């Protein structure tokens, strides 16, 4: 709104207001405006504005001029945006990971600050993400067309939400258990990250069954990876204690009165041990020594427990056992970078040499790599965990082998994964290295792992911490829009349960036994093949599935119905 004043010697000062488009006001400099106002002829002009006809005509002309200017600016802006998009698609340099470097401040999405307080202060910019640039261009891919939307569409969770409502009896017993000061349970957990998590969950449940105080689990040094991480390096210790404060008393160390006590040690818990078995075998030892040390109890506790203990399992796995702040921060950063260009897929690929050896399967790469696996298997027959009477081909057709990169690629394409989809892959170094991943990278060029998307030196603090590196992978996979594991395993099962507990986010469970015969059927057309693969996986996309439909299922993989409730009483 412009304010112009007129002056008359015989009358009081009056102010006239004219609505003027902003473009006109801005286009006139202050000096020229003052000159215009000082001009005598202009005074006459303003005086004549008292004529109603002249006033209306002036307003009409100014309105026409304002509209013309606005249209001109809009057209100019549209042309400019079109030029920017054209420049981005044709002229912007891209890294080998497929991220376009940005020179425009208005279209940049900042990646995480390299000087994060929880990491080394000497972190530099990642050249993979733009070299000297510190930003990424946002995604230009459209995931809203019908075909892509169908792939990214999340399953119907049927209204299931977490609900850990313990019984009155459980809550009554809790008061006595958390006040316990005589019985202390110590545990040593072994294996990789997800194996450790399973044992920690079971340790809490065993402590509850025995009414004992749980000493923070001891992580056995992994001789294979040389990982010397302690519990608090990987997990948030205070979160662990506080969430379970009403279920089990947890202490960091034995009290002084028990330090010199020689614990009663046991490493012979049978598989499928029930609460009754645990009480009958361990309570007497507590009464004698007061301290019990358990080893080698991985997956020994029964999967079919009373409802309250199943809820406790979920409470430990999904709410108490959170990663430590700096691990969670690192994983979250990488997940945000993956999502900075839109939805992404996460794959847990099991294609390491030892996996092929242990499963009795072949990688499908070449006779050279098949020979490497066979020689290793002959040297160490104890590593073979699959049925030794079956050939590698028989194992594959029975669904006992990991999918290789070619099979993963065909499955994703058949299920409608867009070629420009961003994919994060977790797992160890594949047998055959980059050659093993070629089928994936040729079909899906935007394939990354944590080393591709981390800034230089960001992962350095965790270089010799295999469990922490696995935790970072776990976070990025859990946060993905679609997750798939090429061969089950502890990590795949843990993420499946976690994603279910957080709202049944999409997870592809390969129906290997039924789909692989179609992979070798050369008589099928591409359309027929894709139709059949989609049909086979219609009910394998992360929909709610009842744990009790099959005996021996782990509630941390299938949290319905013990740990999740459906308020509308919808049945599966």
From TrEMBL:
<dbReference type="Pfam" id="PF10250">
    <property type="entry name" value="O-FucT"/>
</dbReference>
<comment type="pathway">
    <text>Glycan metabolism.</text>
</comment>
<dbReference type="InterPro" id="IPR019378">
    <property type="entry name" value="GDP-Fuc_O-FucTrfase"/>
</dbReference>
<protein>
    <recommendedName>
        <fullName>O-fucosyltransferase family protein</fullName>
    </recommendedName>
</protein>
<keyword id="KW-0735">Signal-anchor</keyword>
<dbReference type="GO" id="GO:0005737">
    <property type="term" value="C:cytoplasm"/>
</dbReference>
<keyword id="KW-0472">Membrane</keyword>
<dbReference type="GO" id="GO:0016757">
    <property type="term" value="F:glycosyltransferase activity"/>
</dbReference>
<keyword id="KW-0325">Glycoprotein</keyword>
<feature type="transmembrane region" description="Helical">
    <location>
        <begin position="54"/>
        <end position="73"/>
    </location>
</feature>
<keyword id="KW-1133">Transmembrane helix</keyword>
<dbReference type="InterPro" id="IPR024709">
    <property type="entry name" value="FucosylTrfase_pln"/>
</dbReference>
<keyword id="KW-0808">Transferase</keyword>
<feature type="transmembrane region" description="Helical">
    <location>
        <begin position="205"/>
        <end position="225"/>
    </location>
</feature>
<dbReference type="GO" id="GO:0006004">
    <property type="term" value="P:fucose metabolic process"/>
</dbReference>
<keyword id="KW-0119">Carbohydrate metabolism</keyword>
<keyword id="KW-0812">Transmembrane</keyword>
<keyword id="KW-0294">Fucose metabolism</keyword>
<dbReference type="GO" id="GO:0016020">
    <property type="term" value="C:membrane"/>
</dbReference>
<comment type="similarity">
    <text>Belongs to the glycosyltransferase GT106 family.</text>
</comment>
<keyword id="KW-0328">Glycosyltransferase</keyword>
């Amino acid at each position: 709104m412009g304010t112009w004043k007129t002056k008359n010697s015989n009358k009081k000062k009056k102010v006239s207001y004219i609505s003027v488009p902003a473009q006109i006001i801005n286009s006139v400099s202050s000096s020229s405006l003052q000159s215009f106002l000082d001009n005598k002829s202009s005074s006459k002009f303003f005086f004549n504005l008292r004529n109603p006809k002249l006033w209306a005509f002036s307003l009409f002309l100014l309105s026409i001029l304002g509209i013309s200017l606005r249209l001109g600016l809009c057209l100019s802006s549209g042309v400019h945006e079109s030029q920017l998009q054209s420049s981005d698609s044709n002229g912007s340099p891209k890294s080998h990971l497929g991220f376009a470097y940005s020179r425009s401040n208005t279209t940049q999405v900042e990646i995480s600050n390299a000087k994060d307080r929880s990491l080394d202060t000497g972190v530099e910019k990642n050249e993979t993400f733009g070299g000297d640039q510190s930003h990424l261009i946002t995604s230009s891919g459209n995931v809203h067309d019908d075909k892509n939307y169908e792939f990214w569409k999340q399953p119907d969770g049927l209204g299931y939400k977490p609900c850990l409502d313990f019984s009155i009896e459980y809550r009554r017993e809790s008061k006595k258990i958390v006040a316990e000061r005589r019985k202390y349970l110590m545990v040593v957990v072994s294996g990789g990250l997800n194996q450790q998590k399973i044992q920690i969950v079971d340790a809490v449940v065993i402590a509850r069954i025995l009414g004992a105080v749980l000493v923070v689990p001891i992580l056995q040094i992994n001789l294979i990876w040389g990982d010397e991480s302690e519990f608090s390096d990987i997990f948030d210790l205070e979160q662990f204690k506080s969430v379970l404060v009403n279920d089990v008393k947890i202490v960091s160390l034995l009290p002084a009165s028990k330090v010199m006590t020689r614990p009663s040690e046991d490493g012979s818990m049978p598989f499928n041990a029930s609460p009754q078995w645990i009480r009958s075998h361990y309570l007497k030892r507590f009464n004698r020594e007061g301290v019990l040390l358990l080893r080698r109890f991985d997956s020994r506790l029964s999967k079919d427990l009373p409802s309250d203990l199943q809820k406790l399992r979920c409470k430990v796995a999904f709410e108490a056992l959170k990663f430590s702040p700096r691990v969670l921060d690192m994983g979250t950063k990488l997940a945000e970078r993956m999502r900075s260009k839109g939805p992404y897929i996460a794959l847990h690929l099991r294609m390491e040499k030892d996996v092929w050896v242990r499963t009795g399967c072949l990688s499908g790469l070449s006779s050279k790599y098949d020979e490497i696996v066979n020689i290793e298997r002959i040297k160490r027959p104890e590593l073979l965990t699959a049925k030794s009477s079956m050939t590698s081909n028989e194992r594959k057709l029975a669904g006992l082998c990991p999918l290789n990169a070619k099979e993963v690629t065909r499955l994703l394409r058949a299920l409608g994964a867009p070629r420009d989809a961003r994919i994060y892959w977790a797992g160890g170094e594949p047998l055959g290295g980059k050659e093993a991943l070629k089928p994936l990278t040729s079909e899906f060029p935007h394939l990354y792992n944590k080393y591709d998307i981390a800034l230089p030196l960001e992962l350095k603090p965790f270089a010799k911490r295999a469990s922490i590196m696995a935790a970072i992978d776990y976070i990025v996979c859990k946060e993905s829009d679609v997750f798939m594991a090429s061969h089950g395993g502890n990590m795949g099962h843990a993420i499946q349960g976690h994603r279910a507990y957080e709202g049944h986010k999409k997870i592809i469970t390969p129906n290997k036994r039924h789909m692989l015969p179609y992979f070798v059927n050369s008589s099928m057309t591409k359309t027929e093949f894709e139709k059949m693969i989609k049909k086979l996986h219609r009910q394998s996309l992360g929909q709610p599935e009842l744990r009790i439909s099959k005996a021996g299922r782990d509630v941390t993989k299938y949290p319905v119905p013990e740990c999740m409730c459906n308020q509308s009483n919808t049945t599966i």
